Amino acid sequence: MRPCSIWPCPRTSNCARNIEYCNAGSTTFKREDLERGFEPDSCFYVQCAAQIAGKKRLDLTADPPPDLVLEIDITHPSLDKLSIFAAVGVPEVWRYDGERVRMLALAGDSYVERERSLAFPALQSVHLAELLAVSQQMPRTAWLRHVRVWAQTQAGVGN
After folding, report:
1. CB 120 within 8 Å of CB 73
2. How many CB atoms lie within 10 A of CB 159?
3. pLDDT in tens, 67-94
4. In the chain, what are the domains?
5. Closest by CA position to 131, among listed 143, 149, 141
6. How many C-beta neighbours within 10 Å does residue 113 have?
7. pTM for this structure?
8. What element of type H or E holds 68?
9. Which of 47, 90, 110, 138 is the most buried (most CB within 10 A)?
C-alpha cells in the first residue's frame, strides 16, 4: 500500500465536484488551555474553509479545528490521538490501518464509525476502499485521473 494514496482523494474529488476546501497538511495544532496538541498526517478544512482562508497561523481557541483529519496507522496506531481530536472538536477522522479505511465521526466526546463522510457526503467508506484497491494496480498519475473521473461521475459532471 502506498500510504500517501489516500491524500489526493479529497483534493481530487473536491476539484471535480467544485467544493472549496483548504488543505492544511500536517500542521501542528495546539490548544494551550487544554495543554494538548496534535499533528495529523494530513487534514482539510471544508465546511470551515472560508473561516481560515488567508490565515498564516491558526489558533484553535479562536479558529475552528480541521473538518477532516487523515491518519495512516500502519506502524503507529493513532487510537490515542482520537481523544485529543475529540477534545479540540475535530468532526471527522479517517483512519487507514493498511487494510481498510474507517470513517469516524465525533459523537459527544468520542468517535463512532460511519459509512458516509461528513465532510464529503457523497463519499462512502466503500468508495475509499475501492479507490485504494485500484491505486495498487495503477501508476500514481493514472490513479489520480481515475479518481477525478470517478468524482465527476458521482457529481454528474461528466468528463
Report:
1. no
2. 7
3. 999 998 877 666 678 988 999 999 999 9
4. 3-152 (3.90.1570.10)
5. 143
6. 10
7. 0.81
8. strand 68-72
9. 90
